[in-house]
Design brief:
By secondary structure, this protein is an alpha/beta fold. The protein has 9 helices and 5 strands; from the N terminus they run E-E-E-H-H-H-E-H-E-H-H-H-H-H. Strands 3-2-1-4-5 form a 5-stranded mixed β-sheet, sandwiched between helices. Strand 2 and strand 3 form a beta hairpin. The model is unreliable at about 175-180 (pLDDT under 50).
């Protein structure tokens, strides 16, 4: 099964108030394993960068002015996302709302919310009352996020992919790859010895001993 982990950085909280996407990062998973395929683009928002947003992701106007417009990268994003793959995002409503605004603005079909899987909701369901931020979940699952001094769409998508795999049950031992191939082969070669089940029917002597024991039991709980 193919899945896409997605994250965005923006100029603010609401596209209806003139805010725009400035960075988008996607990670492809296949059967819950990262394939190494990614989609990562910066976008020129054609507007100023509020100080509050700059403090979060550090993407300034001078840098973004030289980046492509979303309209120039939209078709590539749609192609990477495909038609059916679930889209995993942290606070999915936020990311999907911004992406769909940008897609609609450049005349491309919007993504149905039914494709979205929200890891915030997953975390709150699994750990009621506990913090559900990406940093908090990285700490809970011992995922190294030391390089996350600022938010970044591709880095956050990579961290979220690891968090998502933990939320759905953690990495399986059977997913060993590369340098562990020899260990996999050794485990697969282990011979399983099947023993014949022993008889459990009590002998006449055992039944007689049990009957004598029951005579000594007073007020047994199974007769109450």
């Amino acid at each position: 099964m193919r899945e896409i982990v997605l994250d965005t950085e923006t100029t603010g909280f609401d596209p209806q108030q003139g805010h725009r996407v400035v960075e988008i990062g996607c990670i492809e998973l296949f059967n819950h394993v990262p394939t190494g395929k990614t989609f990562h683009k910066y976008c020129n928002p054609e507007r100023d960068m509020p100080a509050e947003a700059f403090a979060v992701h550090g993407l300034g106007e001078d840098f973004l002015r030289g980046q492509p417009l979303f309209a120039d990268i939209g078709e590539g994003l749609v192609e990477f996302l495909g038609d059916e793959a679930p889209i995993i995002a942290h606070n999915a409503e936020f990311d999907m709302r911004f992406v769909n605004f940008e897609l609609g603005k450049c005349g491309l079909a919007k993504l149905p919310m039914t494709r979205a899987i929200d890891t915030v909701m997953m975390a709150r369901t699994k750990f009621p009352g506990a913090p559900a931020s990406l940093d908090a979940l990285c700490k809970r699952f011992n995922i190294d996020n030391g390089s996350r001094t600022l938010h970044g769409a591709l880095l956050d998508a990579q961290l979220l992919a690891e968090v998502y795999l933990e939320l759905i049950g953690g990495r399986q031992a059977g997913l060993m790859l590369g340098e562990n191939a020899a260990e996999e082969a050794a485990l697969a070669a282990i011979e399983i010895v099947h023993r014949v089940a022993r008889a459990h029917v009590a002998s006449e002597a055992e039944l007689a001993t049990h009957a004598e024991f029951l005579k000594k039991v007073t007020n047994p709980i199974w007769l109450r």
